[in-house]
Amino acid sequence: MSNFTPKYLLAVVLLFYAATAYAQNIIVSGTVTDSESGMTIPGVNVVELSTKNTDEVNGTATDIDGKFEISVPANATLSFSYLGYATQNIPVDGRTSLDLKLSADLSNLQEVVVIGYGQVNKKDLTGSVSKVEGAQLENLPAARVDQTLQGRAAGVQVSQISGEPGAAPTIRIRGGNSIQGNNEPLWVIDGIIVGTDFNLSNINTNDIQSIDILKDAVAVSIYGTRGANGVILVTTKSGAGAGTKVSFNAYYGVQSMVTKVDFLDGPQHAAYANEDAEFRQSALPFLDLDNVPNVDWIDQVSQNGAVKNIDVSVAGTSENRKVNYYVSANYFDQEGLIRETGIKKYIFRANMDNQLSDLVKVGFRVNVSRLKNENSKISFSNLYLSTTPTRAIYDDEGNFTALDPITDGVTRNFEADLQMRQNHDLVTNILGNIYIELEPLKNLTFKTTFSPEINNFKQNIFNPGALPNNLILQNGGDAAVSTSLRMGYINENTLNYIKEYSSGNRLTVLAGFTLQKTEFESSVARAFRLSNDVTGFNNLGFGSDPTRNEVGSNYDAFQLVSWLARVNYSIKDKYLFTVVGRVDGSSRFAPENKYAFFPSGAFAWRIGDEEFIKNLGIFSDLKFRTSYGLSGSQAIPSYRTLAILNAANTTFNGIEKPGVVLGRPENPELKWETTRQLDIGLEMGFMDGRLNFEIDFYQKNTRDLLLNAQLPRQTGFVSKLQNIGKVQNRGVEFLVNSVNISKPNFKWSTNLTVSHNNNKVVDLGGVDFINLATPAQQGGTGARLIVGETTPVFTGVRYLGTWKSQEEIDEAGIGGDHDVGGPRFEDTNGDKQITEDDFIVLGSPQPDFYFGIGNTFSIGNFDLDFFFQGTYGNEVFNSLTQTALFGRPETTKYAETLDRWTPENPTSDIPRAGSVAALSEVYNNSAMIEDGSHIRLKSLRVAYNFPMETSKLGGLTVYITGNNLFVLSDFRLKDPETSQYGRNSDNLSMGFSQGQYPTSRTVAIGAKIDF
Prior knowledge:
The chain is 8% helix and 48% strand. The strands form 10 sheets. It has a 22-stranded antiparallel barrel. Strands 10-15-16-13-14 form a 5-stranded mixed sheet. Strand 32 (673-686) and strand 33 (691-710) form a beta hairpin.
C-alpha cells in the first residue's frame, strides 16, 4: 500500500466519473441522405443496436426532412436501415451530432418485383421474372423504350429490324409460340393493359421507374388469353423523398451511319455493264468510261441527323406524407439517317396518389402525347437493289433524270422523291388510369380502376405530278388521306387479402373481375391524276381518274370479360406455393368457344434458409423454384370466325353490274392457341449477395395453332383458318449479377445474360411442310415450315461456284443454258434439272444463343457504364445477293464482283458478267445464306456528378452517351437484324434482309440538374 499515493487515488476517481458520464444517455441528432442524389430520406429506422432484437427496442425514424433525434448512451452503436439501402451500424463515440449517407444495397436492387396485379419481394417470388431498372435506360437516345431493352433481360430477344425513327423492334420472350398469329408480348403500363401493338413512342423513357418481364406460366397466366407471348410491365415514376424535387434534363446528339455496304462505283459498274453487253453480243451502254457518272446514292440520300431531348419533371411528397406526385413534360426530336425522315414527340405525364384516410386511397396516371412521324419517301431496299452509281441525279439541263442509263426504262429518281414527295403521320394518344382503393376490413383491400385510351391517327401522302417519272408517263399526281380512331377502356376490380400467421406463415389471396372494350374505325381516300399539284393532299376532289380513285372504311370492335384469382401461401418463409387461374371470354370467337380457363401453379423452396445450408457458410441465398401452367393467345383479329363478302362485278346482258362474292368461309370452331409451359429455376447468391446466379430451364408446347390450311378447289376457296398445328420451344436462361469491387471511391458491377432457345415445329395438321416466303425475285420458295425443324428454315439449292470449262458442263449434263464462268448449282435429286425439287434446308434465323453484358463503374465523381449485346449461330437470308452477285447490270453489284470470273481470272467462283440472262435462272441458293452472328456496343455512358456540399442545387450531372456505336459482323449488308418484311408479328418472315433502313450510331452530350 506504500505506493498508493493521493495522486493515484485522484486518477481512479476521475476515471470512475468519466465512465459514469460516458454511460449516461445523451441526445444524438442528425440527418440521413441518399449518397447518390443527396436527397433526404424519410422513414429510416434508427435503432440502438444493443436493443434491436429485444422486447424494449430503443429506436426512432427520420422525419419528412430526413432528420432524427434519439436518446442513447454515449458509447452506444446506432443501426440505420431502410428498404433498398445497405444497413449501417455507426458508433456514437459521445457525439451529439451525426449525419449519415445511405448507399443503395447492391445485393437487393431487385428486391421488389412487380407482377400481375401486385408486387412481391424478390425472395418470395415463385415465378420467373426479369427486371430492368429505369436508371439503366435513362437518357439513351432512342425514340422508344423497347429499343433500349435489347440484351438486358435473359430469355428476351429484341431485334431492331429498322433504323427508321420510331420504328418498333420485334420482341420474342422464350421464342415464338404462334406461326401465323401475333408473337409480340403483352404490354402493361402502370396496370393498364395496352396490348401487343401499342405505339411505345407515346411513352417517355425517362419517366420509367422499372420494367418487369413475366416469362413463366405462373407469372403470365394471370393475363390469360394474352399472356402466352410473355408480359412486360412498365412502372412509371411517382413522388419520392421529402418535399419537392425539380429536375431538368436535356441532351443533344448526332446520328451517323454505322457501316456502309461495299458496291461497285460508277466506272467499275460501267465496265461490268459493258462486259455483260459484250458477252451477250449487244450494244455497249457506255462508250466513254472516263466520263461515266459516279454517284454514291447512299451518301446522296443520307445525312448526319440530330437528336434532341428535353425533360422537365416535378416530384415530391406532401408534408404529411399523404400525397405523392410526379409531373413531367418531354420534347423529343430525332432526324432520320435518310433525309426528310424523323419523329417529333410532345409528351405530358401526371401521376398522383392520395391517402385520404386510413381506409381510402385514390390516385391517377395520365399520359398525353402528340407525335409527328416523317415517313421515308423512298424504299431503301430499292435504292440498294436498282439505283446504280452510273445514273446521274440531274441531266445536262439541270432537270432530274428519269431514265435508267442501262435499260433506258423510266425509273424513280430518289433525290427527286426526297425533295418533292410528302408522307407523314400525326398521332394523338391519351392513356389514363384512375383508381380507388378501400380497406373495409383489416388485411382486406378492394381496388377498382378505370383505364381509358383514345388514339387518333392521320396519314397524309402526296406524290406530285411534277415528279420526273410522272412527267414522262403523264400520270399526274396522286394523294391519299387515311384516318383512324381507336377508343377503349378497361375496368378492373380486385380484392386482396393478406394474413400473417405465426412462425412466418403467410396467406395472400387475390380475386378479380375485369371488363375491356375497344372500338376502332378508319377511313381512307385516294385520288389519282390530280389536275394540279397546288393543293397536295388537301383537296382529293381534284383526282380526275375515276377508274383508280377509291374510298374505303372499316370498323372493328372487341370485348373481353375475365375472372382471375391467385393464392400465395408461405410456410416458415421457406416453402412458397402459388396457384393462379383466369377465365377469359372473348368476342372474337363463336359462342361455343368464347370462354377458356388458364390455370397454373408454382412451388419455391428457400433452401438457403435451412440450417444445414446456413452451416455450410457458402450461400447468401439459395432458392429452387418450379412452375407449370397454361396461357393463351387469341392470335387473330376480330370476325375471323365469320364468312365475309368481297366486292365483285359481273355482266348482265352486256352491262357490267356491281355485286358481291363469298370471300372467306366461316369457321365457328376456331378457338384459342394454348401454351403449356414448364419452368425449373435455381437462384444462388454468394459473398453476402455480391455474386448472384440465376438459371432457368423451360419448355413450352403450343397447340391448336391457327393455320391457313389448304382446301380442295371444288369448295371455291384456297384455304381456311383452322386450329391444327403444334410448336415447341425449349431453352435455358442464365443470369449473373456481380459486385466486383465496392469501395468508397471505386465501385464496379457486372450484369450478364445468356439465353438459348430451341424452336421446333411438331405438327402441321398432317402435312410435312408448308411453303412460306419468296424473298428473292423468281427465286422460288425461300422459307418453309418443316415438321421437326425450326420456325422457319431457309431453303434453296447449294451453290457450287462457277463452271470452269465446257467439258465440266458437258459431263454434268444439267438441262438448260450454261456458260463457262456462269453459276453452278447442285442437282440434289440427280434428275439433271435444277428445280425446287433440289431445294434443301440451308439455315435457320434462330440463334444458338443471344447475350448481353454490361459493366458499371463509379470512380470518385465519375460514372462509366457500357453494354454489349449480340447473337451467335443464326443465319440471314440476304435476298439482295440474287441481283448483286448473280444478276444483270441494271442492278447494283457488290464490290467483290471485281474478282468475278473472266478469261484472265478463270478460277473465280463469282459469276462472270452476262452469264445470267434472267433471274429465273438463279434459284434461292446457299450464296444468299450468311452468318448472322454479331456483337454490338449497344450503349456507352460517361457522367460526372458535381460535388454539392456547398451548392444550393440538389444535383448536377453532365454526361456523354453513345448508342449503337459499332457492330461486328461478317454479314454483307453489315447489320444482320434489319428485316425485309418489317415488323411482321408472325414467325414466318424472320431473318430475311434486302438492305432495309439502316440503324444509326448516336453520340449525345447532356446535363441533368436537380433543384
